[in-house]
User: Which sequence fits this backbone?
């Protein structure tokens, strides 16, 4: 292990150790001072939940079956918290109580009673301490937002004893989140903690000073995490949507109650909307970069319903480092960046220079995406360069992912510099040229990709070029190295090989494109798509292999038929 890497590991390890120690001390303080705190007598408001609901899930839970995180657990009349839970992801979903939104769909006394019974069992088993998975920061935050948003489900018709226990637990949650807010790493979880605290200051009786203070802390976190172009520091399009779905009800709650809205809240919302439109494909779904997974259409539409910014999507997000080429009914989105910082790269992918393409009502070329409740091995697979529509050298990712139980899967090294240039030629065609140096250290090659979209949106030209930087020309021997170009195809697309170098792609709506790579053998291979709404599903990919330095240029083209 190199000295620089050891220093990075040591520095981050010490920081994370201090954070974990801080959370443990917070738990200890909570157990000591639990009984001395006051309990609010009521909730003032229940923020709206804009996320999609599914009555089927509610019916299953009512029947004693919990369909969570891709698993099904039957409990009949027992408490689910006394069972052996089928997976960590299942346990997280169960303890987060996000499933409460589905119970709201039934609007029956039986559903309310069942939800109260489940919460009562949680309070009895986990409500008197802050240990275990139930009190992980991201789970605690999600549970608070769920309890606040769906409090009418459980408090309507509740007995006074349950009402008091529920309010006492919310007060306990608020004190805990306040204590651990500074002991959480940078990223989405920390932001959502401050969103939850701001919600609690509005929903529970609070002084004007406390409402103002929580709003100011939220402002600071929004300023840190939401970039000037509306993207999130994780570079994950889905994360921006998730944050927006929490910020919109929060904004409305401030307005409805007559409180001053935090200074950064509305400008942040207005920045996120153009970024969402930027990442939105022709079929309405979001692009699959850096951990993004399938987006329920109802959730995206629920957020876009409040979009007052209007206008066409931007051509580029200069701070998030993405480019969008669009003409006619064709859209191309290209990743021209890397992780912003090492400490916020837990979900970053090694997908620099990968692209996605949609036309008509279909996505044709995609990245593999991320399974929402994936195991560690699947997550590593989905983050590799080979899971993206770009070129891999020596079956090695362009960035290396550090595996650490303490620090998590961070992007440790690889790409140091990414360049991007955009122009329009005399025919009105839109061109992008970008390069990255992720393969310079291991192999001595720079990858440069050039993509051009015709003004009518009916033709796409691609040129991948590999070259050695000047300081590597004499140091490297011309050893043969396999390069593999992958174009991951959306599962809804039908592939037909017409010639050795030509494949036809047909969408579900009948839209047809021809992919060709003159002088190359274009193979159709089996693939895995992680981001289907049903989970992992089989798909296909177009694969072109060539050898460096014998072949340093790969030219390919997509042309619309009819």
Assistant:
């Amino acid at each position: 292990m190199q000295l620089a890497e050891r220093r990075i590991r040591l520095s981050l390890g010490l920081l994370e150790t201090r954070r974990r120690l801080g959370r443990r001390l917070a738990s200890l303080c909570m157990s000591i001072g639990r009984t001395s705190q006051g309990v609010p007598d009521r909730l003032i408001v229940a923020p709206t939940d804009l996320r999609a609901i599914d009555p089927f899930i509610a019916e299953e839970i009512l029947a004693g079956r919990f369909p969570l995180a891709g698993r099904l657990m039957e409990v009949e009349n027992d408490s689910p918290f006394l069972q052996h839970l089928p997976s960590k992801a299942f346990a997280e979903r169960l303890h987060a109580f996000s499933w409460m939104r589905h119970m709201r769909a039934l609007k029956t006394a039986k559903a309310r009673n069942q939800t109260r019974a489940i919460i009562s069992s949680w309070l009895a088993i986990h409500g008197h301490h802050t240990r275990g998975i139930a009190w992980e920061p991201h789970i605690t935050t999600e549970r608070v937002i769920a309890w606040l948003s769906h409090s009418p489900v459980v408090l309507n018709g509740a007995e006074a004893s349950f009402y008091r226990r529920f309010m006492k637990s919310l007060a306990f949650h608020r004190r805990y989140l306040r204590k651990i807010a500074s002991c959480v790493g940078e990223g989405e979880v920390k932001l959502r903690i401050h969103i939850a605290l701001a919600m609690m200051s509005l929903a529970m009786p609070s002084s004007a000073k406390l409402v103002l203070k929580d709003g100011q802390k939220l402002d600071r976190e929004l300023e840190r995490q939401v970039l000037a172009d509306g993207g999130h520091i994780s570079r994950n399009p889905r994360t921006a949507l998730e944050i927006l779905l929490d910020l919109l009800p929060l904004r409305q709650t401030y307005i409805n109650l007559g409180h001053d809205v935090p200074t950064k809240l509305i400008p942040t919302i207005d920045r996120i909307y153009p970024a969402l439109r930027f990442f939105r494909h022709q079929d309405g779904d979001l692009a699959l970069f850096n951990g993004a997974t399938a987006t329920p259409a109802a959730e995206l539409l629920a957020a876009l319903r409040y979009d007052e910014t209007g206008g066409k999507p931007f051509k580029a997000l200069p701070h998030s480092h993405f480019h969008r080429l669009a003409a006619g009914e064709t859209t191309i989105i290209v990743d021209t960046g890397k992780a912003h910082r090492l400490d916020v790269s837990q979900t970053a992918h090694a997908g620099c220079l990968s692209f996605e393409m949609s036309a008509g009502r279909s996505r044709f070329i995609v990245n593999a995406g991320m399974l929402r409740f994936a195991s560690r091995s699947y997550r590593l697979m989905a983050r590799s360069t080979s899971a993206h529509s770009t070129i891999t050298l020596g079956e090695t990712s362009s960035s290396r992912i550090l595996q650490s139980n303490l620090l998590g899967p961070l992007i440790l090294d690889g790409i140091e510099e990414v360049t991007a240039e955009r122009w329009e030629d005399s025919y009105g065609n839109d061109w992008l040229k970008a390069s990255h140096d992720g393969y310079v250290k291991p192999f001595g090659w720079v990858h440069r990709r050039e993509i051009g979209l015709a003004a009518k949106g009916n033709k796409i030209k691609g040129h991948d070029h590999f070259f050695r930087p000047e300081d590597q020309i004499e140091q490297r021997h011309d050893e043969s190295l396999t390069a593999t170009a992958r174009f991951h195809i959306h599962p809804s697309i039908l592939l037909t090989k017409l010639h050795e170098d030509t494949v036809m792609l047909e969408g579900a709506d009948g839209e047809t494109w021809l992919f060709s790579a003159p002088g190359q053998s274009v193979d159709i291979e089996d693939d895995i798509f992680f981001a289907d709404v049903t989970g992992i599903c089989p798909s296909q990919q177009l694969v072109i292999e060539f050898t460096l330095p014998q072949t340093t240029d790969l030219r390919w083209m997509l042309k619309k038929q009819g």
In short: The radius of gyration is 25 Å. The longest strand covers residues 535-548. The longest helix spans residues 3-33.
